[in-house]
Write a structure and sequence with these properties.
It is a multi-pass membrane protein. It is found in: Cell junction, Desmosome; Cell membrane; Cytoplasm. Its main location: other. InterPro entries: P53_induced, PMP22/EMP/MP20/Claudin. It contains 6 helices and 5 strands. It is an alpha+beta fold and 189 residues long. The chain has one domain: Up-down Bundle (Butyryl-CoA Dehydrogenase, subunit A, domain 3), CATH 1.20.140. It is elongated and about 80 Å long.
């Protein structure tokens, strides 16, 4: 952003925009029913972060059981939800930080640290879920962790990457604010 001459006033909303995309991905992961799905026909198993559904045969009805009855289900949901709430808080703080004309760089570094904490909670939930699900819940056929689970991992990876950006941005404070005299690499013949 700094090295190639992109103006701070034009690029200041890129990081909050990426945080907003991370929030949308987190909502999709929380609400999606595709954490685990049957891979082949007949589709007999489908699970979300909140419940596991089975269909006994081709024309039968789906029967769902809540994963909140299991301690690991509550732990996975709680840790991922805490990570998501911290991500939403970081999004709100980033909007506030970048809306102020005088950018507070220590405030931005704090947002980066909070993003790392959110990533830790998200990853804890994303690891607890498949490990305990595959050992505690009986699965028939070939199953795969699917699209909503992938959105959860995408959110966690975005939290880590954006945490680095928010933590490293204050190192370029003078260049961003235009307080550095430009250096020209020109030598006369």
């Amino acid at each position: 952003m700094v090295k190639y001459g992109l103006d701070y006033t034009r690029c200041r909303w890129i990081l909050p925009l990426l945080l907003g995309i991370g929030v949308i991905f987190g909502i999709i992961a929380l609400a999606g029913r595709g954490w685990l799905e049957s891979q082949t026909l007949p589709y007999v198993h489908q699970a979300s972060l909140w419940e596991s559904c089975r269909k006994p045969f081709e024309g039968g009805e789906w029967r769902c059981e809540s994963l909140m009855g299991y301690a690991w289900g509550r732990a996975a949901a709680a840790t991922y939800l805490v990570g998501f709430i911290l991500l939403v808080i970081c999004f709100a703080l980033a909007i506030i930080a970048f809306a102020i004309d005088t950018l507070r760089f220590n405030f931005i570094r704090g947002i980066g640290g909070l993003l790392f904490v959110a990533a830790v909670f998200s990853i804890m939930g994303l690891v607890i879920y498949p490990v305990k699900f595959s050992t505690e819940i009986e699965m028939t056929g070939i199953n795969m962790f699917s699209w909503a689970y992938g959105f959860g991992w995408t959110t966690a990876i975005m939290e880590i990457c954006l945490g680095f950006f928010f933590c490293c941005l204050p190192n370029y404070e003078d260049q961003i604010l235009g307080n550095v005299k430009p250096t020209y690499f020109y030598s006369s013949p």
